[in-house]
Amino acid sequence: MAEQKASVKGVYIADEEGSFVTKALNLVKLAFGGIPGDRHFGWTKKAGVRESMYERGTEIFNRRQLTLVSVEECAQIAEALGVDRVEPEWLGANVCLEGMPDLTEVPAGARFLFDGGAGLLCEGVARPCVHPGKVIAEHFPGREKLAAKFVKAASGRRGLIAVVEREGEVKRGDSVRIVT
Amino acid sequence: MAEQKASVKGVYIADEEGSFVTKALNLVKLAFGGIPGDRHFGWTKKAGVRESMYERGTEIFNRRQLTLVSVEECAQIAEALGVDRVEPEWLGANVCLEGMPDLTEVPAGARFLFDGGAGLLCEGVARPCVHPGKVIAEHFPGREKLAAKFVKAASGRRGLIAVVEREGEVKRGDSVRIVT
Hints:
2 copies of one chain form a homodimer.
Chain A: E1 3-13, E2 23-25, E3 27-30, E4 44-46, E5 59-61, E6 66-70, H1 71-81, E7 95-98, E8 111-114, E9 119-125, H2 131-138, H3 146-154, E10 160-166, E11 168-171, E12 175-179
Parallel strand pairs in A: 6-7
Antiparallel strand pairs in A: 1-2, 1-7, 1-12, 3-11, 4-5, 6-10, 8-9, 8-12, 9-10
């Protein structure tokens, strides 16, 4: 097993009805199913466009309980878009790590083991969709084309999806071991 | 997305106290958490030797709800061991597929979509451990060294672990689509 180390730059929750945009907290409690109160929380979910192998609305296992991004990959997306920053909240991220310039290359099956004992199991890459592009564009008036450019700019840098393997707290500033 | 097709050679359950060896059924019902009544059924499990990143006995997400093997890879293991057959039951398999000579190469994140609507989500490779080797050796008297040879013989051919993504029945003879 290989091991990398990183730190938690921020933790976030999407708790507003109708919006995937997250907001920063000092800590999140991970429970089986994700972050209680977050829009993606739950053991199961309804199949959507990402699960086109199932009829839309079918109850399926929720493998997208949380989304992880890195400071470095957010900066790479910003550079590709020609803007000064892309915030984790705009991508709907729940955890932003610092020290993982190649976060999106971490394979499914890898573990993220946090100081407080919480553990996440990587379920693969977060495929970029158009919605964060629109949120980014709203922050840069006059740059409406950013929305259309997002998917390509974020390809391979969009971060990971994960499920909670072990319950616990994750705090801003925590260190994390990534075991693959 | 790439798609392969295969068929279900057999379905199996481990429902005897203290044994991982499975027995053949005509059908199994998949529910969230696995196969009800099987020793690996449940949303969560206690961390064991395979999850050495957690203290033994810690409650963790159960990513090993089912094990899949293929007829062809069982034959490859048998050949490597110099015996005439290795049965799926001896490996503790829950589903044996026919038509997947490279089953163990199917990546985490792939879906197994069965006729009856059930869906499995691949969680990665089933790492060979010594126990099935002992069961194999019991079936070939005088070949005690088989137990020690199993881990190497089964490396890369041991099949996959999976979680139930969509509930439903899986029957012997069903066809299955593998979507990666």
